Amino acid sequence: MTDFPSEEYPTFEWSPLVKTIVFIIYGVIIIFSLVGNTIVIFVILRCKPMQSITNLFITNLAVSDLLMSLVAAPFTPISSFSNTWVLPQFLCKLLGFTMAVSVYVSTLSSTAIALDRYMVIVHPFIRKMQNWMCGVIIAAIWAIATLISLPLAIYQTTTFDPIENDTICTESWPSSKSRRIFTILHFVFQFVAPSIVISFCYFYVSRLLRNRRQQKLGSRFRNTQKQDLEVRRHNKTNR
């Protein structure tokens, strides 16, 4: 049996300039995110008149962005530029889980905002959502986001890759079937379902507002015609 010489593949290395630029960009994004979202949260929670249902959901969006900026964003370029996992093992589980929770909270909060706008504009005579109900929905959003993202915290782990001869952070599922099921559910609940709900809500809202605008313009046009007719009649009478 012939032994073939082992072939070593060169490892791609980012240039120091690219790394510096990326770290600077990430740093600027993190700073702006921290400052901007903190201001949003402070203003809405501090000012009572600002605490509308929509603004409370926006506050929830800001909190999820802060979570991403504080936990996930600072370590993303480090893990991306390293050929091996150089961070602590618990961060391997925490980063993927945190990013998934943050994205889920943002998506579900945007969906809740769309549903609230739909109910207020399309069905104005139905009782408006109260602040306590909004708080319950926000708590449910975080609970759902945590539960759906929990498999990432369970199955994300560091392992040794014999091909790359490095320690990597990857998902280690019990079977490929369970991973496919999670991926499909993840895609449906994080993107497909919210996109359908948001599109439906804003489609009907925009259609209703467009119809109202057309009715208003038509009514204004008819009133103008009526006024012109009255003026003509008045002028004929005074001749």
UniProtKB/TrEMBL annotation:
Transmembrane segments: 20-45, 57-75, 95-115, 136-155, 181-205
InterPro entries: GPCR_Rhodpsn, GPCR_Rhodpsn_7TM
Name this protein carries in UniProt: G-protein coupled receptors family 1 profile domain-containing protein
Membrane topology: Multi-pass membrane protein
Alphabetical list of Pfam families matching this protein: 7tm_1
Alphabetical UniProt keywords: G-protein coupled receptor, Membrane, Receptor, Transducer, Transmembrane, Transmembrane helix
Protein location: Membrane
Domain G-protein coupled receptors family 1 profile: 36-239
GO cellular component, one term: plasma membrane
GO molecular function: neuropeptide binding; neuropeptide receptor activity
